[in-house]
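Q: Hi! First time doing this. I have a protein sequence and I read that you can turn it into a structure. Is that right? Here it is:
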Amino acid sequence: MPRSPRIHVPVILAAAAALAQAQDTRKVVEPKIPPACATLEAKIARAGSSLAPDSENMPDTARIQAAIDGCRNGHAVVLRRASERLDAFLSGPLELRSGVVLVVDRGAFLFASRNPRDYDLSPGVCGTITSQGRGCKALINGLDAADSGVMGDGIIDGRGGETILGQNITWWNLADQARKGGTQNVPRLLILNRCNNFVLYKITLMNSPNFHVAYNNGNGFTAWGVKIWSPERARNTDGIDPGNSTNITITHCFIHTGDDQVAIKAPQGAPTTHISVVHNHFYTGHGMSIGSNTDGGASAIFVSDLSIDGADNGLRIKSNTTRGGLVHDIVYEDVCISDTANPIVMDTNYSAHVSEAQERIPVFRDILIRNVRVTGGGKVMLEGLDGQHRLAIHFDNVQFDDPGAMKVSAKHADVAIGPGPFNLKIAGDDVNVADKSTPAPPNSCSGKFVPFPAP
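A: Yes, that's right. Below is the predicted 3D structure, encoded as C-alpha cells:
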C-alpha cells in the first residue's frame, strides 16, 4: 500500500458562533481511528486498579515498540485485552513514529513502569531531586513524529501515587519533598516535540507523575473527548500544556488535576498562537491558564463553553518580570465557574523570583471576558505591572451571584465594561474604569456542570 502523506485529523466545532471566532485556523473534523497494522493482546491481569507485584517483571515495552517501528504510515498499533482477566500492558518509555497512531482499546490498560531506571536521561537521575530536574523520559515520547497520535477508549495510567521501585516513596511524594529545595525528576505521561498534526482522541490519561501532556514547537494539535484525572493535590500534574506552538484545539474534554487543567505556555522561541479551547469541563486544579512563561508571546486564544467546578483558579493569566512578554487577543466567553477560590486572575507578579535584571516584562492587553457567571465567593485579581505596562481588559456581561462574597485586588489597569454588566466594584491604585453597561440577564449555566465521567 502506498505511504500516505498524512493522517487528516482536524476538528469540527459544534456551534456556528464558535466556528466564526475560533482561533485555530484549521478546518477540522472529528478524528477517526485509522486501520490497524498490528493488534497486540494483553498478557497481564490487573490486580484491583493496578498490577500485582509479580507482574512488575513482565514489561511489554519491546513488544509495543517493535510494533510501532514496523507499522506503516497511516495505520495504528492497537493494544487490546485478551480476555476479561488479561487486560493490562506494562511499559517503560515508548517512541512514537511519524504517521503511526497508538490505540489503547476499550477495556485495555497501559500501565507505566515504576522502575526509575527505565526513564533515566542520565544514569541514576530519574527518581531523585536535583537542582535542574528534567532527568526522566516520558512514558510516551514523540520527536518529529508528524501525523501521529494516541487514541482509543482505554486507559493510560502513569501510577504517580504508587511507590517508586527501590524506594519507599511515590512519584508525587517526591514532588512534595522538592518543595523544600530542588526539582523532582519524575516522568511525564506524554512529551511531544515538533509533532505536527498530532491527535489525542477519546483516551483516558490518569495519575501522571508530572504533566500529563506537554506539546511543544508544533503546528496542529487536537485533543478531542480526552479524559484526564489526577488527585486534587498531586503536585505539577497539569492536564494539557501547549507551548511555542500554533493551531491547537482542545475540545469535548474532561480534566481533573492537581495543577493547571490547561496551561498555554510561551517561553522564548516561536510564539504560542491560534488556540481554541472549546466545549470542555474542568474540575479540581489550577484553572484555564496562560503562562507563566510568556516571553515568547501568546495571542489569538479563544476559550468558549467551559465549566470550571471546584478549582483553585478559573480564568488565569500569570507571569512575572523574569519570564514575561506580550499576551494579547484573548477571548473568554460562555464560561460557568462554581466553588472556585480565584475565579478571574490577571497576575503580572506570579511566583516572582525577581533577579537584578528585570528585562522580560509581562504585558496583558486586548483581553475580553464575555458572558461569564460565577457562583460562590473568592477573589478577583486585575493587576498590571506598573503605569507603563498596564493591564487592559474588557468585561461584557460578567456576573457574580454573590458579589458581596468577592474580594477585588486591582492596580495599573484599564477596565472597560459593557454593553453587558459587570457587577463588581473595581478600584485600586492607578485603575481606570469606563462603564458603558446596560442591564442584562446573567449567562445561563443550566446543564453546564456535569460529573466527571467514569472511564
